[in-house]
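Researcher: I'm comparing several assemblies side by side, and this is the next one on my list. It has 965 residues spread over two chains. Same procedure as the others: predict the full complex and return the structure.
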Amino acid sequence: MKWLILGPEIYFLAVAAAFLILSMMRPNGRRDFSAALFLAGLGLAVTLAAVRLEGALFHGTYRVDLFSQLFKGLLSVGFFLVVCLCSNLKGIHETRQPEFYLLLATCTLGMMLLVSSLELLTLYVALELASYSLYALVPLRSGSGRQMEAGIKYFLTGIATSALMLFGLASLFAATQTTLISELMLKLPALLNAPMAFIGLLLTLCGFFFKLALFPFHVWAPSVYQGAANQVTAFLATATKVTAMAMLVRLVSMSDGNTSLARVLIALAIVSMTYGNLVALVQKDFKRLLAYSAIAHAGYSLIGILSMNPTGYAAAVFYALAYLPMTFTCFLVVVKVASDGRDLTIVQLAGLHRRSPLLAMALLVGVFSLGGIPPTIGFTGKFLVFNAAMERGYFLLVLIAMINVVVSLYYYILVVKAAFLLDPEEERPPIHLSAPATILTVVMVVVIVVGGIWPSHLFELARAAVQALR
Amino acid sequence: MSMHWAQFPYLSAILLSCVVGLLVILFIPRERETRVKWVSLTFSGISLVFSVYVYCAYDRALGGLQFVEKLLWVEPLGIHYFNGADGFNLPLILLTGIVHFTGVLTMWEMKGRVKEFFAFAFVLVLGVFGFFMSMDLFFLFVWYDVSLFPMYLLIAIWGTTRKEYGALKLFLYLLAGSALVLPGIVYLAVVSGLNTFDIVALMQPGALTPGQQRFAFILFYLGFGILAGVWPFHSWSPVGHVAAPTSVSMIHAGVLMKVGAFGILRVAIFLCPIGWEYWAPVMAILATIGIIYGIFVGLRQTDLKYVIAFSSVSHMGIVGLGLSTVTAEGLNGAVFQMFAHGIMTALLFSSLGYIYDRTHTKLIPDLGGISRVMPVASGYFIVAALAGMGVPGFASFWAEVTVFISALKVYPVLGVLAICAVVLSALYMLRVVQKTFYGQRNEQYAHLPDVSFSLGLPRMILVAVMVLFGLFPRLMLDLIQTAVIPFMTGGGMPR
């Protein structure tokens, strides 16, 4: 019965198969959505039931532990939430909707495999499964052709970093003669002073920097965020970021506190935060703004990882936990306000407080959480990350990050201003949220606020997950 | 899990009444504006009653930290939910209760988006209350930020002159302050090696080296100093005060600026006493410049709200001067001045608010002779202006005298300069009063009604408080003394 620990993976494989069959039948949007919602809900239950499982398979190349299961849980939450947004899937043509769900499922599956793989080749294969699903998802949007530009940009930069990463994996293997992470962990710290191992590890990390949209691997993010369908962007902005954070924690923890690596990561974190925040200041499109804010957040989360102490890894895991609900809440507002499936400029948020007070409130909470204002989960995440960095004595880094937070609040407050203050040029009708959508919105707001006020349990969970890394 | 609930949690009850008030308002339909106001009044009244109770029930003979509520919050990081009351924060808790209650009354005639206004006001006041009573650095920072973010919306939506600019400037300035405070807090918690954010624990002698104290002190002084309106970081405050709607100006100038000054006291001075002594001359110089600058810039203003706003900069300079003396009297006077100035400014803004709502102008030349139309409404303003000048019989007299006596002892030159400036300020306030209220009768406003008894209620309360503590200053000075003396002599509070 040891295959049972692969429950979530097998389940999502089955979901993918189910949508493969549906894609061959006559298109029917409602049926596809209902099926997806049911399967996603069940998937959530299956994954949560599997959280406490432990075990290793395939000679130690694949391990199920609290760390992997926590992120699998988070991924299935992300999958479920994104499917919840698909009740009105205007951005994607009806005939392609089954493929859309199919690719979402395979992407989730790929990322689930990723967080459990403890061997470099397995890791690479899992990563590519997730990546190729996304390459296909991005240009799936119906419309003007901007999605094609986004798709090509994403694909080209994606395979380029993939090549870099392969080179890195090869160097790592050459330096250590092993592809097993458990062995790498023992051998690598001593070898990191040699250029080959160091470059190998750094290039391997690049694959995930790309997913996280960390500077200088961010070039795809603005076009893809804007070009892809709103639901696809929501998935891209939540689930893949969370996975990338998890993988960075896993890979960086192999280096055992190497200072040269920390220095490189510090530089990347600072540049990424500063660049993301400064460019975000002038954005007009809300999704583009969120893309630049994601680049900045990549920098913040890296601060926890580069602290290279257990508190830092736990803080980074907590940051991932926090990042999902707050980003999702912003996309929830995007999807509901742009109900015709188009892009949403910030100006179009004008008058939201009258059109839907609840959505305006959700936007306020989500955006302030991204900005790191207490008492939200986003503040707690930043606080934990800064605390970890301070333990390593990186005072200046924390100060620079805080200055960045203040800069970022300027554009976040512009969003709030649009929603609460500006009057729309033409009167728009009120937005009616269905009962499930109302519940979803309220739940997200409550999660963000309650997670900020009572972070204790979540932080304990993150610490326990990080212990499983050893 | 360490837990300590000595008695009924009065302090948490104050916070809870704000939270409940907020939640109740959220569930009232937005058309029912009167109901929103009554709910606001009720819950702000409850929090006022509790704050008066803790003020009176505090055992002055015993001293130290009372009404302690301590609950372990996040164990791995040593974060506690830790509230306590002592001679330093009790006057400010009382001040917040009074200003919020009278602020709700002042806004009684408000129309348009009433529900949101009172909801955000509760968030603001919740943050302020929490900040004053918290004894844990983490929570202190959380409350600090909670009190800041509603400010943007309160000013930008309901404000007046250049409201969006004022709101944004205020918001970014104050958050820039928090960008210094947060690294400072984390720095202290980490370098002390105690793995706690508990202020009482971090106050242990030897927890922080002199070098660390000097470094951290300047972070906190600058961070909180922005909020306290310390020159040259004050420039957000006049713009923000002028833009804000009346009750927000009241809370803002009356209470929120004290959050900054109290932050300097509770965090910077408590935890880094060596840094305090080291940087005190710098604080004194900046404070004196603030006093003089506020007065002279205020002299040139034609907008009455700017006059009040610059006088706030100057009065907060007096608080800063008191803190910079590193003496018991100085601290005592500074805390008393925080309270006295809070009440006085609230009264100034509140009485001006009534006049502005009727005449729709706050320019001195336009208002000329308004006391002939509204003698009572003008009377409240004049009383507050007299208090601002330091006329005996009002609370601020005692506060300013205490500060100046100690300042003269420690910094004779700066003290003399500051006193001369304050004497001059009397001149300028009198000029403002004369030009605004005692000119030719302005026929344009002849038909306007004077303030009625019920609408005048908030101003009466504020005047009464000012006179009460002006006639019986020991009601407050003795209380503050119970905290100041052990702090100055023992280098820490008795537990």
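Model: For your comparison table: The CA atoms of residues 87 and 480 of chain B lie 4 Å apart.
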